[in-house]
Amino acid sequence: MALGFVATPALKSAILAAMDSKAALGPIQDLLVRHGARTVSEGAITVMPGGASTRRYFRVALAEGGSAVAMFVPEGSKAEEIDKAEVGTRWPFLEVRDLLAERGLDVPRILAEDTRKGWLLIEDLGDDTLAQYLLRRPEQKRAVYTRAVQDLARAQAALWALPDGCVVSRRAFDFDLLRWEIEHFKEWGIEGRGHSMTADDEATFAGIADRLARRVADLPRGFVHRDYQSRNLMVRDQGGEDFSLVWIDFQDALLGPRAYDLVALLGDSYQEFDRAFVEARLDEFAEARGLSRVDRDGLGYEFDLVTVQRKLKDAGRFVFIDRVKQNPGFLKFVTPTVLKVKAALERLSDDDDMRTLHQVLARALPDELG
Questions:
Q1: Which of 72, 90, 320, 327 has the smallest count of CB within 10 Å of its CB?
Q2: Contact at 8 Å (CB) between 303 and 263?
Q3: Which residues, other chains included, contact 30 with Cβ-Cβ below 8 Å and sequence gap of 6+?
Q4: Do the beta carbons of residue 227 and residue 256 sit within 8 Å?
Q5: pTM of the full structure
Q6: What is 9-123's CATH topology?
């Protein structure tokens, strides 16, 4: 490779996509040696489907029986979005995993690590994300979501006090991050799809975006997974009706509003729920946290406010992933995500800013928000 060569995002994606079991064999063999397991042939390694991130996964059939998952993280501890936390010597994935395990959360076991080269060997949890599990067991929908909100309530209580210097406590949904996410929507969710605003609407949007980011940033903060949704919860099926939920993809955990992970879960872009289902799960969360009726009402308001901010960001992000990362798989979720924003804005119609925001967005995106 020539000196001074810089890989573009598109080229990096192509390189990662081309990584096959043969290319991964050497690093995985090294992990197996660290784990104390026998090495395997290329035929024992299967490339697993990935998501929107640059991480790559390989299922390894162990010579001793069973299997494990090798995870390759090209840039280790670097966040894919903006992150003002200092980068430590230990990967955030590992630091947060250890914290969650210590506080009683079900997380994958680490079998071996070679973080200097970007590799981990972790417990194989199978293929049953919550989303996949419900395709097989749709009758379990209420049970798994009840468990998810109850687990979240317990986790928030258990993680209220964090260790000194913890990576989670060094980063937060502050004004800068929240405001950047709203601008990300404007850049990609509106302009990136060929739409525009008038100069007056742009000025109005900017003012409301400032105030919305400030309002969310000023909400009391606690532990936030950041992407607590149906593709980031694995179902550990223990037979019959017995199951537990295993948390994954928690490396970007930070401090933020109590409603944030509820919005990720119950406003999931990959799922559809009627309002009664959402309200029932919010009631269960409130009960698990011991909230009063007044606090429960406040939670509902926070849920809608955070929904506007979070789902705007998601809609823009899906377009960004297509345009910049050349992954069109998320485009089909843009309109359903914008419609979730619309529903939240309608519930917040007594709020002057939210009512005006709805009007501005309806002019920019009349087919979705009109």
A1: 90
A2: yes
A3: 114, 117, 119
A4: no
A5: 0.90
A6: Phosphorylase Kinase; domain 1 (3.30.200)
